[in-house]
Structures are given as C-alpha cells and as structure tokens.
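User: I'm curious whether this sequence folds into something compact or stays loose and floppy. Could you predict its structure so I can see for myself?
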Amino acid sequence: MKKDFNLFDVFGPKSTEDRMLCKKHRRKMAEKINNFITLYNDDCIRILKGLDDDSISCCITDPPYHLTSSKKDNRGFMGQGWDGGDIAFSLSLWKEVLRVLKPGAHLLAFGSPRTSHRMVSAIEMAGFDIRDSIMWLYGEGMPKCHNIAKAVDKQYGAIREVIGHKDRSKGRQFAEGKSGFKDGIVPITVSKSEPAKALEGWDSNLKPSHEPIVVARKPLEKGITIAQNVLAWGTGAMNIGACKIENLKKASSDFNYQEDLRRHPANTIISEEVAIELGNYAKYFYCPKPTKEKHMGCEHLELAPTDLGTKGRRYDDRCENCRRKFIGKEGTICDCPPDKKKTAERNPENYYSKNFHNTVKPISLMEYLVKLVTPPSGVCIDPFMGSGSTGIACSNLGFNFIGIEQDKNYYEISKARINYSIDNKKAA
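Assistant: Here's the prediction. I'll summarize afterward.
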C-alpha cells in the first residue's frame, strides 16, 4: 500500500539529535514566573518541538484568524502583520500540538467564521478527532460593510445629498477617536445617481456576532476505554460538574436529598446583549466582552500606538480640512498641503494604549474553558498567548500553564497581566 504523504515528515525534527537541540533551546528560552507558570518569547513550533511526547493535559489557544484582505502586503485583522500568513492552517503546527498532548487531551481553538474551516481541516488532518464546536455569541460586534450605493455614486462622480445629521458624540466610536467626524455629528446621505438609487440598502457583509471554538481531542490510548484512559492519563473527559450553569428554579421539597438543578453546559456561550435578547440566559454560560480588565497589570508599560500607523497616528486619523485619512488605502490618503493639513484634536489616550492587543479574550471565558478540559494538577498550553488571558485563567484556578508568544510587545503585556493576577491572588 502506498504510504500517505505526511507534512510532519517534512517539517518535524529529523532525528533524536534534532529533538535534543530543540529541548536545549526550549530550556534556554524558558522564563519561569513561578512554580506553575512558564513563558516563552519565541516561535511556537520551535518550543513545541522541545517538549516531551504525551506531556501536556490540554491546549487552549486563540491563533491568528488570517483575515487577509490584501495579498500584496499579507496583512490580516485590522491591518495587523501578525494575522497574515497561514500558521493556524499549518499541519506541522497541529502535528506538534498532537504529539505533546496526552492521549485523550482536548484542544480548544478560537477561529473566525470566515476562515475557521481551514484551521479545523488542518487540525483533523493532523490526527485529532473533531468532537464539537462551541459558539461564543456576542452583540458588541461592529458592522464592517462596503456601502454599494455610495461606491456607485463615487464611481459616477455624483455628490450624495445630505438629508440630515445624527449625533454620535456619546457613542463609543467617537469616545475612542474612531468616528472620523468633528464633534461626532455624522451626515445622513441618500443616493444621487440613478444606478445608486436602485442599490440603496445593499452592503457587502453581515454584522459579526459570534466566534467559533473548535473542540478537538487527541485519540484515546489504543485498545482502552475512555474510563480507562481517564484513569491512566487524567484526560479524555470534560469536567461538566465544574461548569454547570446556575438554574433559577428551586429544588423540589419532595426529595430528602439536595437536588442539583444546575444545567448541563451547552456548546453556546453568550454575552450580555445576547442574554437580554433571549430574556432567560440561565441555560447558557454568560460572558461579556472584556473592558477595563484588559489593562490591569499594564500600568508600568509604555504607551504604544493602538493600531497600524506612523508617528503615533491611527489608521483612521483624518484631516479636519478635507476629511480624508492621513494613513490609509490608496486613494484615501490626505493630499492637503502641510499648511492646510489639520489633525483632529482628540485625547492622545485614544491613539495609544498600554495593552494594545486587538483581540483580548475575557478572563471569565478563559476560566470557563480551562475548567472544562483541564484535569486536576494538569498542564495547559497556549502556543499563541497574545495578551495572556489563558495564563491568567490558569493562575486564578491553580493550574499549570505554558505560554508561548512570538511578538516581544505582546509577550511583555502577557507577563505583566499574569504577574498582576498572581500578586492579587497572594493579596487575597
């Protein structure tokens, strides 16, 4: 029989000597925060290659989504370079994750509705069993659409008719310096050209309001049952009891024992806005998007630009004279002479942040996932640590954690936030 082609044969270490070199490099790069948490500022595949087989209890990670809109510069989410490439679709990555996980260990990986299918395919091809998909529903997503009628008017050179204005000065977009309009007053316009009038109301995308989390599991040890695997390795099952949802109903008085009315956790997680729409969110784990918690522990870090830009300006920083961007896609850059160019006077803190990671995950969400799949005294690994939310969750719950982050700035943010959580835990 012809042997299947395996990318791990191409990318993995070729010999025991190569593996030993990887282990030596891993030990050199390790930064121990305490006896339970070890961080690495390095390439995740390089560190994974230096870990022992069957040594990790679970993997919970938020890899790049690779939302690349331009093949020219290969940048992804919000123009960020780290979201380019295809590491999350790499078979070699997930092969390494599979190798270091114990038999029956779970992998939980966040993805984008647009590209998660490619990641899931790579995870399955690497040898994982795809068990489920958790949907994290939230209402805070912002529509990122291309107004077709406006684009047609622009193509025909038609100036759209202003029929009114709406006040966005109290909205979050204006408060963060993102609205692009002075005083937050946004004009309401209608189509002018006949072709545009026929396309009024047509846009390019839906509003994003969920993120899928693939639930995968390394195959059980060959020839044994799931119960035997749990006894042998501590992995293979989920801690449903620790993640049950509080029920609003009261226990029946007909029983002479304490009845557990908590609900079995579902493969759906909701935010506050979704909970309000549902009316009764007692059936689901409730988790809002992070707000102030993302900055905790980062007070000593230096301010840095929150988005892609130059000289501290945001991507959407506009000239108050012509309303065009200083930095943007071709055809949108402000061409005003230097003496005419004006910068909107906004709070500098809107342009800078100490935790400037774009996709910070809520700590409560990560705690829920860590409890779900990490056995007692287990080791959780996150190859794409980002701003450190998984590490904070493990620290708060008393689990061991291995975090890997390639970007130096994000690594420092992660370390600061994790240290802050450890200090708070000691104080308590």
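Summary: The chain has 13 helices and 14 strands. The first helix runs from residue 7 to 11.
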